[in-house]
Amino acid sequence: MEGLQDAEETPPDAVLLDLRMPFVNGFGFLYRFRAQSGHLHTPVAIITGDSCLDDSSITELRDLDAEVMFKPIWIDEVVTLTRHLLEKRRAVPISSSPLSS
Hints:
There is one protein chain. This protein is of the alpha/beta class. The protein contains four helices and three strands.
């Protein structure tokens, strides 16, 4: 919940998210985050250890424009993923950016 509140106050350039979190799981966070003004195009990646995630759940996450990676994941992979998300953010047209309002 804190992350959602923080995102409203200071829009992030990208989000790394786990599915299993206290209070609000990754799906709940992502739906709420996408509903916030200006976060429709913010790049999001889900990093999860939930190897039992079914195809429909993965499809749902991708429909919400989130990339999905499974643990274990090495730090260099996290760095590469983060760079990819930030490059994706830079590619968003200025008119779609929350800072253009």
